[in-house]
Design a protein that fits this description.
By secondary structure, the chain is an alpha/beta fold. It contains 9 helices and 7 strands. The relative contact order is 0.19.
């Protein structure tokens, strides 16, 4: 192992609430940590909601109450012999320093640190935190308000932060979320052209619309989708095309 282990800093980030930033952070972090063998940590700086911290508490309680999930969790723990990834809570203006400190003092090499950041650019410290990311992934939906705020936000990142040069950002990637397989709306091609004209990067993979994204796992469910303590069920990943998204995601971050 080389002396300097490269840790990649990643944020699912957007100017718009409710587009699934915390959900994607969890889905990708859990897939990488529990299924693909990477070591992951998550910093929840989405003050004051801190939804990932709350999600972890719920997830652990649910595993304890559900016999099927308890067996799955036990099997997972004995197979990969790995603890749940840590989720730490900070405000945006101190989160970068905290993450660097964590990586430098961690006893295991950390491959990826995910950041769940607030959705407004005027949060103190948010632009500095974003400038400290290596890769930013932004979910978009074919909705005028979402698109307008996202494109303004992404251009701000590209023009202000990346051109100033004081940044770690290597890529900013937009991706379609909540795509309804049944409708081929002309909106998509219009927006795809606009994204291309603005010189922004759009991922090939699209996440299909699925009720699973909005639903917390039920106490009696036999499968897991969004969980901080287990990876998403493979059939559910296929149905939403999250599996294809993760393949492309890994190519982009080049781990």
């Amino acid at each position: 192992m080389n002396a300097k282990h490269k840790t990649v800093f990643i944020a699912f980030s957007s100017q718009k609430g409710g587009v699934g930033k915390s959900t994607f952070t969890t889905l990708v972090a859990s897939t990488m940590h529990y299924r693909l063998g990477y070591n992951v940590a998550v910093f929840d700086a989405d003050f004051p909601q801190h939804s990932l911290m709350k999600m972890k508490t719920r997830d652990l309680a649910m595993v304890m109450e559900n016999e099927v999930l308890k067996k799955l969790a036990y099997k997972q723990f004995t197979t990969i012999n790995k603890k749940a990834y840590p989720i730490m809570q900070y405000k945006a203006d101190s989160v970068l320093e905290a993450a660097h400190e964590f990586v430098n003092t961690s006893t295991v090499p950390v491959d990826v640190v995910f950041f769940d950041l607030p959705g407004t650019v005027n949060t103190p410290g948010i632009l500095k935190a974003l400038a400290g990311m290596h890769h930013i992934f932004t979910p978009i939906t074919a909705d005028r308000v979402v698109m307008e705020s996202t494109l303004i936000f992404t251009q701000l990142l590209q023009d202000v932060i990346m051109k100033k040069g004081e940044t770690s950002i290597e890529t900013i990637n937009l991706f379609w979320n909540q795509v309804d397989g049944r409708e081929s709306t002309p909106l998509y091609s219009v927006y795809n052209q606009l994204i291309a004209q603005l010189g922004l990067s759009l991922m090939q993979s699209q996440i299909k619309n699925s009720t699973r994204f909005r639903k917390e796992s039920e106490t009696d469910s036999k499968t897991v989708f969004r969980s901080t303590v287990m990876p998403p069920d493979e059939r559910l990943m296929k149905a939403s095309q999250l599996d294809l998204f993760i393949d492309e995601f890994l190519k982009i971050i080049q781990l």
